[in-house]
Design brief:
The structure is a single chain. This protein is mainly beta. The protein has a single domain, classed as Methylamine Dehydrogenase, Chain H. The two termini are about 40 Å apart. About 45% of the residues are buried.
Length: about 425
């Protein structure tokens, strides 16, 4: 028999964007202390790990701590709460600087039980490759993760890279998606961007399944910078976000084919408007939720003029077997998002230059994170803010947060857990 869940909640003053007395801060969000709970505000929990903290937090939506996992290392960066209450966590390792100052460096994947006991650690860090950013648990117990791998300038030039864009280090950091069986531990499946390159003489618009070495990050070694990773068990497909291409991609887990890309048609020589600018956190909307099968994205807006951020939902075109439909030479659809949120006023006041996340919840509302500011909030379908929580750092820490996971109050992962709301998290 499952134990009942004990929850002690404290009332928070959070609210809605229509409050007549509220004024917005520099990020375009109404400060928490000026708000009352919005009419469609939903209860639940927030799972997050500030990027410089060794502690993973589970809080209510007003920031009161209900559970923590205390570790010995900062994240590197993704975390997942698993079906049995275990915490899957990418972490910075002793070799996390083997790729210099690469943003999102990790180096090892760890699993903790609910009480914080370490169950296993698997390193993935050498001078030639390094886990970074995100992790995802598969239904079979394997773990997907993103990793850099070093390629030589000479090989890049041979494969079509403009020689004048080779960094002084003579290195190009390509990206891979690896599948780990932690019981062995061994890599049992792998996808390498370097195996999917547009070759000299090929026309990019005729090969959207291939990647152009002369697009993406040209100013540093970090060519693609994959910064998020999700898996769809229904489709057996992998969704990643390439910050430096300003695109999201869907990769077929069976064949390894790059099936779909969206956000920046010029990266594959297609016509169509650019939609994304240095985005993060591409997620499949889970079955049973409003918009199921669609994709949410945090469009950071880096290098957009003017710079502003958006939370997006898109509906990919129907896929036919191993391909998503599009007309030859044109961009993959959709032409415009299904839903978007840009903040109050003219929509340009809300800006998060890095990290950040978007997640659809059961009510149909959407939870959004301004990662560098440590601001978490929920909006209804019309865009009205329903609650806001602002991390603070009176102890000298950093509020910067990669992304959050909103967990429903009745989520089965919390069955049998005593969740008592304590003090508000401060850093």
């Amino acid at each position: 028999m499952k134990l009942s869940r004990t929850i002690l909640t404290l009332l928070a003053t959070v609210g809605c964007s229509s409050s007549p007395s509220a004024t917005t801060d520099d990020a375009g969000i109404i400060p928490q202390q000026d708000q009352e709970a919005g009419p469609t505000a939903t209860t639940g929990y927030l799972l997050f790990n500030p990027t410089s903290s060794k502690t993973t937090y589970l809080t209510d939506t007003s920031g009161h701590i209900v559970h923590t996992w205390t570790t010995t290392r900062p994240p590197g960066l993704g975390i997942r709460l698993l079906a049995n209450g275990d915490l899957l966590r990418a972490e910075q390792s002793d070799s996390s600087k083997s790729f210099g100052t690469g943003g999102g460096s990790g180096g090892q994947i760890t699993l903790y039980d609910w009480d914080g006991a370490l169950k296993w650690t698997v390193p993935y860090a050498t001078s030639e490759h390094l886990q970074h950013h995100d992790v995802e648990m598969l239904p079979n117990g394997h773990v997907l993760f993103t990793a850099w791998e070093k390629e030589t300038g000479a090989d890049a030039i041979a494969k079509g890279r403009n020689p004048s864009t080779i960094p002084a280090s003579n290195e190009i950091w390509s990206d891979s998606v690896m599948e780990l069986d932690p019981t062995t531990p061994a890599i049992v499946w792998e996808w390498h961007a370097w195996d999917h390159l547009l070759q000299p003489g090929q026309v990019a618009s005729e090969h959207p399944e291939l990647l152009d070495l002369n697009k993406g990050g040209m100013a540093s070694e970090d060519w693609l910078h994959l910064n998020s990773l999700r898996y769809s068990p229904t489709l057996d497909r992998i969704l990643v976000s390439s910050h430096n291409m300003s695109e999201i991609w869907i990769i077929d887990h069976k064949s390894g084919n790059l099936m779909y890309r969206w956000g920046n048609p010029s990266s594959y020589g297609a016509s169509g408007d650019r939609q994304l600018y240095g985005q993060h956190c591409a997620r499949f909307i889970e079955p049973g939720l409003p918009g199921a099968g669609n994709i949410t994205i945090f469009d950071n807006g880096q290098n957009r003029k003017p710079s502003y951020s958006r939370a997006l939902e898109i509906t990919p075109p129907d896929s036919n077997g191993d391909a998503y439909t599009r007309s030859a030479g044109t961009a993959f659809g959709p032409g415009t998002p299904t839903w978007s949120w840009q903040g109050p006023g003219d929509g340009t006041s809300f800006y998060a230059d890095m990290f950040s996340s978007v997640q659809r919840v059961a009510s149909g509302n959407t939870v959004i994170t301004n990662g560098p500011a440590g601001t978490f909030f929920e909006v209804d379908p019309s865009g009205a803010v329903q609650w806001t929580f602002q991390l603070t750092a009176p102890k000298g820490g950093s509020v910067s947060t990669y992304q959050i996971e909103r967990i429903e109050s009745n989520d089965a992962r919390l069955d049998g857990r005593t969740l008592t709301a304590g003090e508000v998290v401060t850093l």
